[in-house]
Amino acid sequence: MKRLLLATLPCILFAGSPGGKDPAPAPALAHTVVLTKLDAPWDMAFLPDGTMFFTEKCLGLSVRLPNGTVVKLLGMKDSKGYASTANDLFCEGQAGMQGVAVDPDFARNRFLYVYATSSLTAPGTNRVLRLKVNADVTAVSGRVDIVADIPYKDKANDLPFGGPGAHNGGRLRFSPGDGYLYVTTGDTHNSVVPQSPTLLGGKVLRIDRDGKAAPNNGAPAGFDRRIYTYGHRNPQGLTFRPGTHQPFTAENGPWHSDEVTALRAGGNAGWDPRPNMAGRGDCPAGYCGYSPNQMGPMDPKERSAYMPMTDLKTYPDAMRPAWNNDGLSQGMFSATFVSGPQWKGWDGRMIVGFAGIGMHGTPVGNRLDVLDLAADGLSATRTTVKLPMPAARFRSLVQGPDGNLYVAVDEGTIYRMTPQ
Ligand SMILES: [Ca+2]
């Protein structure tokens, strides 16, 4: 008996340890097309029976019922064929109808949440809408904008780069641990936003179903109490580690320096593109987020002079990233942990999705990676998924109630990826 225990011990020690020899193989993957010919699907959220709510960035909110029927629930300005339409909701650039989340207590309250850009407040704001789904899941009603003051980048404040709607954040996820709603927001190419104690861009918010601050968010004195972490650039991936429920973001960085970060309450993610910070001078349009050259590709030899995603010189207590893309490709837009024995060696690991082929001539762009994160969330090792379907712009990743991975791509398809 003692010998048997010793023989199995190395497997336990090595499981999930970055750099360690991995005893469990990667799963083989099959794929199925769930929906296609969509218009820029952005996110999905599931009920336990497989009902799948999904957003299309410039059209609105729909649902795919377990029998395969699709019902269009809430349209945006100029959308056609929806059960109801909200004329204040619009899309522009990266902004539009984005994240979607189901209330953990949906069976009782039937609440659903979407992140959407609205014209109700000039010059446009991003909002978190709470909706009530009817009994047969064919309509929504009772809209309440539980957050109505997330910054949006409008035309008047455009810069020489990015366009209106840029750096718009937009992922919504309920924590399976504490039950609160987490919301990622972008810096909107406005340098004062990410470190601002009151502006809600460049943040992760943590709120209850009415939009009120959750307890113990931990941000410094003087901060809006809804702020959980700050100093972000454009987080669009948000996921919770199985077991510990620790939240992680995946966010876009300049020159392909995308980051995955383990969040802690009140933490600063260390992004500060203001002029005259950290030895920088003035920058065009007051935004140093692409300093020093502002427009062109990074010169790898000059990497240390480029704007850091986590400025540890200015903010030594900032949250260290677990992983940085370090120039490999541009645009990490989604992340989810996967769990369950069917995932074999990937059980408990994070899948991250990229959407950036051809940007600045990078050779690898549209891909899914698997990150094996250390227990302390401060380091990770990466492998790349051998895709069963064509590479595409990976916008959303969600593990469904059936344990499979659902993947939305900008090209208009939602896939189901099934480990074999
Ligand atoms: Ca950071």
Task: Name the features.
single chain, 420 residues, mainly beta, Neuraminidase, 5-stranded mixed beta sheet, 4-stranded antiparallel beta sheet, 4% helix, disordered N terminus, binds calcium ion
Quick structural summary:
By secondary structure, this protein is mostly beta strands.
Write down the Rg.
Answer: 21 Å
* List of distinct ligands in this structure: calcium ion
Number of helices: 2
Quote the distance from N terminus to C terminus.
Answer: 33 Å
Strand content: 25-35%
Structural class: mainly beta
**CATH fold category name of the domain at 37-292 and 313-332:** Neuraminidase
SSE order, one letter for each helix or strand: HEEEEEEEHEEEEEEEEEEEEEEEEEE
Unreliable stretches (pLDDT < 50, length at least 5) are: 1-20
Largest sheet: 5 strands, mixed
Strand line-up of the largest beta sheet: 2-3-4-5-6
CATH class of the domain at 37-292 and 313-332: Mainly Beta
Q: Helix fraction?
A: under 10%
What is the CATH superfamily label of the domain at 37-292 and 313-332?
A: TolB, C-terminal domain
Strand runs, count: 25
What is the second-level CATH architecture of the domain at 37-292 and 313-332?
6 Propeller
Mean pLDDT: 91
Shape by Cα distribution: globular
